[in-house]
Amino acid sequence: MSIINPEDVLKEIGLELPETAKPVGSYTLAVKTGNLVFVSGQLPFSQGRLKFKGKVGKEVSLEEGCKAAETCALNILSAVKWLISDLRKVSRVVQLVGYINSSEEFTDQSKVLNCASNLFKKVFGEKGVHSRVAVGVNTLPLNAPLELSAIFEVK
Amino acid sequence: MSIINPEDVLKEIGLELPETAKPVGSYTLAVKTGNLVFVSGQLPFSQGRLKFKGKVGKEVSLEEGCKAAETCALNILSAVKWLISDLRKVSRVVQLVGYINSSEEFTDQSKVLNCASNLFKKVFGEKGVHSRVAVGVNTLPLNAPLELSAIFEVK
Amino acid sequence: MSIINPEDVLKEIGLELPETAKPVGSYTLAVKTGNLVFVSGQLPFSQGRLKFKGKVGKEVSLEEGCKAAETCALNILSAVKWLISDLRKVSRVVQLVGYINSSEEFTDQSKVLNCASNLFKKVFGEKGVHSRVAVGVNTLPLNAPLELSAIFEVK
């Protein structure tokens, strides 16, 4: 286990893990198989409501999209913690996939994702450096500006 | 292995595994690596033809999209059975990813996917509870209303 | 290890591995976890610039899209080699996911991906036969015509 607790790093940079929405029904927040944790697609929910709505490049600016990506990343961390109890067990952020609700002209999906990628690096150091997929889509559940899923390796 | 055979559950609810399209060429229906089976994206083919065509929220209703999701889920199960011979070897449905061919205004991608998620839960019980990603896209192969890929853990 | 070196096969068919862009910052080209390598989404960059730009079915033809898919596949192979040093260690191409920047009417995403799938089969033989997901999207980073990510199993 790391000596540094990722949750302490979050506190230092003024962030905290949001509460996870109670998973109900036929799917759940995250599933562990072997050493891998597959996290469900997370929307930028903060305190029970979507932080932004609409397409990046239209109703949502690049800066707002980036902030929303950080919120999704926090929700991903909450989901991982919900499943494995302690973020110190994370040994690697393996992959981040970002679907950005985009106007047809918007082509800066990578920049939107950077706020999520940078958060993982800050929180986990080199273990937070991940592979990444950034794509545009024409719409998302609840008209969210983006949705992020992730795969973590844990001990 | 489960005592209950997932195929018996399917029969009880009036469903059956479709025949799998013969895989040819440079890609295939599903690939096993370690304990994981990665299933190729499945379209709502039933008896050799697409059950519905077009965008959900436009040519295809939410209800039809949900039915199509169940058909995709059956095709996923067929692909898994084709690879591992016996669905009783499934130890967990790890992840379901759904790409919904959506009109720009359609934001109920999650509801469309529920018919697939619910089928996995019915067929595998708690082992069928999975992580999930639901996104909208502006078009799909053959103008299918949705495409589902999945990852299964097997013994 | 294979007796045949995948790089020799590439040379025989007149192709070569491009140089990989130096990974910097909080994400990287590819990450290894256990026996799996997750490769980041690759755009059709060739010698530092995008081979084609725009939507397949509009600014980019099916044939150009297919050529671009082969370029992405080469970039994927470069990323894998960068991580594991020797492509002879590849024991299976597990999955290829292709996001095709598509006009609303374009529904031949599968045909676009074939040039990537066929390359993997040529280079790795039966070990190159993979599971596959092909979807359309309304836009991509830098207005690339497609983006491909992949999972490889390595020894």
Q: How are the elements arranged and paired?
A:
Three copies of one chain form a homotrimer.
Chain A: H1 6-12, E1 30-33, E2 36-42, E3 45-46, E4 49-50, H2 62-84, E5 90-101, H3 109-124, E6 131-137, E7 146-154
Parallel strand pairs in A: 5-6
Antiparallel strand pairs in A: 1-2, 2-7, 3-4, 5-7
Provide a brief overview of the structure.
Three copies of one chain form a homotrimer. With 155 residues, chain A is α+β, with helices and mostly antiparallel strands.
Walkthrough of the structure:
- The structure is a homotrimer of 155-residue chains.
- The longest helix of chain A is centred in the middle third of the chain and has 23 residues, at 62-84.
- The first copy, chain A, has a single domain (31-154), classed as 60s Ribosomal Protein L30, Chain: A (2-Layer Sandwich).
- Chain A has helices at 6-12, 62-84, 109-124; strands at residues 30-33, 36-42, 45-46, 49-50, 90-101, 131-137, 146-154.
- The first copy, chain A, is of the alpha+beta class and 155 residues long.
- A five-stranded mixed beta sheet of chain A has the order 1-2-7-5-6, covered by helices on one side. Chain A has a two-stranded antiparallel sheet with strand order 3-4.
- Chain A binds chain B through residues 25-31, 33-34, 38-41, 97, 99, 101, 137-143, 147, 149, and chain B through 34-36, 92, 94-97, 102-110, 114, 117-118, 120-121, 128-138, 151, 153.
